[in-house]
């Protein structure tokens, strides 16, 4: 190594060290900007906060959500979606846009309150616009036929397990239910979710390691 008479680095070496430092800082800034853009427009990560999606998703499990897909098509029945619920989900008991539906009535909620909640929920799509929906023993009756749902926790005879009255999902909206049918605050109580309130479709789980997988 060449040093000047005082024992320090030569001007050429000091310039080289400065350039490397600037390059490193630039790489770090670029990586942070790239991560920000990916989170903002492409893929977002979410932590499961409750047991409403058990046994499919456990509390604390982390998932990856595709945000791009919302711009090119609608989610399908069976997809797991992250979204903002209606503001009726912010109160207890939940508030349906139709006062005689949801809660202890015979019909699941068919009309959401017009305001969007700031909360973020994750549920499974069980019905899309135009579908008729009824709930019997926690299972969805879609368009008059029982839906095959091997992924759910049985509801039993508890509150919210049966809404035998039929409702129709409005066009451009999606009916959401948790897989843990006896312990999920979902569209049965606060109604369908408009597409504009959807954030993205869950496509993978990455934590904990023993639950890594693709949906």
TrEMBL record:
Ranges for domain Peptidase S26 come to: 22-207
The UniProt entry lists the main location of this chain as membrane
Q: Which Pfam families match?
A: Peptidase_S26 (PF10502)
Ordered alphabetically, the record's keywords are: Hydrolase, Membrane, Protease, Transmembrane, Transmembrane helix
Q: Which SUPFAM superfamilies match?
A: LexA/Signal peptidase
- PROSITE patterns annotated for this entry? SPASE_I_1, SPASE_I_2, SPASE_I_3
Q: Which domain of life is it from?
A: Bacteria
Q: Where does the record say this protein resides? A: Cell membrane; Membrane
Q: Which GO terms describe its molecular function?
A: signal peptidase activity
Similarity comment text for this entry: Belongs to the peptidase S26 family.
What kind of membrane protein is this, topologically?
Answer: Single-pass type II membrane protein
Question: Main EC class of this protein?
Answer: hydrolase
Q: What is its EC number?
A: 3.4.21.89
Checking CDD domains in the record gives: S26_SPase_I
What is the protein named?
Signal peptidase I
- The gene coding this protein: lepB
Q: What InterPro entries does the record point to?
A: LexA/Signal_pep-like_sf, Pept_S26A_signal_pept_1, Pept_S26A_signal_pept_1_CS, Pept_S26A_signal_pept_1_Lys-AS, Pept_S26A_signal_pept_1_Ser-AS, Peptidase_S26
What catalytic activity does the UniProt entry give for this protein? Answer: Cleavage of hydrophobic, N-terminal signal or leader sequences from secreted and periplasmic proteins
**TM segments?**
21-42
């Amino acid at each position: 190594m060449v040093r000047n008479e005082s024992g320090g680095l030569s001007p050429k070496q000091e310039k080289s060290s400065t350039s490397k430092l600037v390059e490193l800082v630039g790489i770090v800034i670029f990586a942070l900007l790239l991560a920000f853009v990916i989170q903002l427009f492409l893929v977002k990560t979410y932590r499961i906060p409750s047991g409403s999606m058990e046994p499919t998703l456990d509390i604390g499990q982390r998932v990856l959500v595709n945000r791009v897909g919302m711009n090119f098509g609608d989610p399908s029945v069976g997809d797991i979606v992250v979204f903002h619920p209606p503001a009726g989900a912010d109160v207890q008991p939940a508030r349906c846009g139709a006062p005689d539906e949801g809660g202890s009535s015979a019909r699941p909620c068919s009309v959401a309150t017009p305001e969007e909640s700031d909360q973020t929920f994750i549920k499974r799509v069980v019905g899309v616009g135009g579908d008729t929906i009824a709930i019997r023993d926690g299972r969805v009756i879609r368009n008059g036929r029982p839906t095959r749902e091997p992924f759910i926790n049985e509801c039993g005879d508890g509150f919210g397990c049966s809404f035998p009255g039929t409702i129709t999902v409005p066009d451009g909206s999606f009916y959401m239910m948790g897989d843990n049918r006896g312990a999920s605050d979902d569209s049965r109580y606060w109604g369908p979710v408009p597409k504009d309130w959807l954030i993205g479709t869950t496509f993978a789980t990455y934590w904990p390691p023993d639950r890594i997988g693709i949906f």
